[in-house]
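Thread: quick sanity check before group meeting

JM: Hey all, I'm pulling together slides for Thursday and realized we never actually wrote out the predicted structure for the chain we discussed last week. Dropping the sequence here so it's in one place. If anyone has concerns about the input, flag it before I start.
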Amino acid sequence: MRTPEAEKTIASGMDPKRRERVSRLSLPEWALIGGVLLLILAAAIPAWAAWQQRERLVMARHDIATLQAAILRYHREYGTWPAEATTGGTDTRFGARRPNAALIRVLRSDLLQDDQAAELNPQRMIFIEVEPYRVGWSGLNSSGEFLDPWGVPYQLALDSNYDGSTQIEGSPYGRVSGVGALIWSYGPDRQPETPDDLVSWDRK
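JM (edit): ok, ran it. Output follows.
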């Protein structure tokens, strides 16, 4: 027959002697345990942050490749780029002064019947699908802009004057010949045109 003390021991899930040993740990012993836990956290937190950064870099590179493929499919379908044609030496850049939402809406066929941009995708074809933005995950914000994993709009430039090269307005990257669509992310530092930018073209 179980005694009341035994019933309490079973209910608590711990042997009384073991519980007594834990309660009798000295202050230095508790400090040692706390120090070990801090060491574990000190090693785990940087490793977790590095893993997150790697995942975001992979995500951004995938987004850039997906955007490039969508724009090229559009070009094969319509024979033009998904932006209004321009004249002279000016190409069209999205993401800086001009939100990339205008371009993404055309590629997603997120257009109203009386929308002027509807003329750019008359067959209402869907060239890309994008999930909503979450912190640490790329996607569309409430304004329809396509943000990278660091919360900055993807940058895009199109050869909208059809001269066989793309001029990136307001950028030290300048002109890229033989490429009709350029896509890039400002990267982890969120700063424009720095070495950690992720770009779709061969940066020499």
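AS: nice. The chain has a mean pLDDT of 85. The domain at 59-199 is CATH 3.30.700 (Glycoprotein, Type 4 Pilin).
JM: adding both to the slides.
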